[in-house]
Amino acid sequence: MILQYLKLSNYNTLVATIFIILAQLFFGCSQEKAKIDLENISETEDVLVHIDTDYGRMTAVLYDKTPLHKQNFLKLANDGFYDGLLFHRVIEGFMIQGGDPLSRNASKDDVLGRGDPGNAIKAEFDSTLFHKKGVLSAARKPDQINPEKRSNGSQFFIVHGKKFTEQELLSSLIDYRKLYVYFDSVMRGDGFNEMKTNFAALQTEGNREDIRNFVVNAKDTIEQHYGIELDNIMLESHKEVYKTIGGYPSLDGAYSAFGEVVEGLEIIDRLAVVKTGKGDRPLEDLSMDVSLEVKSKNEIEKKYGYDYP
After folding, report:
1. Which has the closest alpha carbon to 126: 73, 81, 39, 64?
2. Measuring CA to CA, how many Å separate 29 from each of 25, 26, 32, 78, 293?
3. What is the mean pLDDT of the chain?
4. Cα→Cα distances 104→49, 83, 286, Å
5. What is the arithmetic mean of pLDDT over 134-158?
6. What string of DSSP letters covers 154-170?
7. CB 223 within 8 A of CB 26
8. CB-based contact 296:303 (threshold 8 Å)
9. 165-201 burial by CB neighbour count: b if 16+ within 10 A, else e?
10. Distances, alpha carbon 53 to alpha carbons 63, 109, 146, 214, 308, in Å
11. Residue 252: closest CA among 127, 96, 149, 121
12. Does residue 289 contact residue 52 with C-beta atoms inside 8 Å?
């Protein structure tokens, strides 16, 4: 009788163990994300991007006007590339940046922001796209080594920004690169002796902000002298958004904006104020999980108030 009990007990234990293993396998598989057939999205449909963090979910729509960036991001997200990566750089009033493949399982001392999947993306600029709060834009290497402004193959940032006054917007529209080039020509050329004298004294006694203001104040004189315009153009509708919702206008025309958050702007506010350390890296890891969802464009317009062009 005891032997029969032991055999029955062992049998029941074996069955229970097999059941547990099968359950784990089943539920483990069911939790894996189902891939989307990106090749067969109809013209009346679009793909929503859900970015989950410990602070909540942001939902974004990617722009059809930046097809190279949209296709690249969706492919990476569909393959699970972004899952577990960090927002490794956070600057309040500016942006939150992530997507560095080297950030997965990175130690606290690792310097992040240098990784990529091995490709760069051709810059895609459109005058209707601008860096308002919530816009997804591609990170890239600086102009000195990347004059074509090609985007990093995976790293992106989400604009936090701030609200701008009319005067601040006017200042942000100045093409400072051209301004400094022409100002240098004035300083090296004939005439403008009083300006040269004042500037020489400022270089000796003034600080960096004083020098910058002096050059900006010389802008009208330079424009008249050379017959040029040193201001970039900004649509009035964009100005209004920068004044009421916020953003970062100096990024326009310099970085490829390729999408925008349509739900969860408050999550950006929560992420933007975390404590950071060296290299603007958050002291506590901010990981992301990115998933995709296909919806009709009509549903997206009704639910999120997004207007397709």
Report:
1. 64
2. 6, 5, 5, 16, 19
3. 89
4. 20, 9, 11
5. 97
6. EEEEEE--B---HHHHH
7. no
8. no
9. eeeeeeebbbbbebbeebbeebeeeeebeebeeebee
10. 23, 22, 31, 45, 27
11. 127
12. yes
Q: pLDDT grade, residue 63 (50/70/90)?
A: very high
Q: What is the pLDDT of residue 32?
A: 67
Q: What would the two tokens of residue 60 be?
A: 């974004």
Q: Is the pLDDT of residue 12 over 70?
A: no
pLDDT, tens digit, 9 for 90 and up, residues 117-132: 999 999 999 999 999 9
Report the SS3 class of residue 293: strand
- The answer for residues whose C-beta is within 8 angstroms of residue 82's C-beta and 6 or more apart is 76, 98, 99, 154, 288, 289, 290
pTM to 2 decimal places: 0.79
Q: Which two tokens stand for residue 51?
A: 């970015």
The single-letter code of the amino acid at 164 is F
Residues in the chain: 309
| Interatomic CA distance for residues 90 and 124, integer angstroms | 24
**SS3 state at 257:** strand
Residue with tokens 């894996």: 32
Residue ranges of alpha helices (H) inside the chain are: 2-31, 67-78, 166-172, 176-188, 193-205, 208-217, 219-226, 236-244, 265-272, 297-304
Task: Specify the residue for token string 């920004």.
Answer: 161
User: Which domains does the chain possess?
Assistant: 46-163+232-304 (2.40.100.10), 174-226 (no CATH)
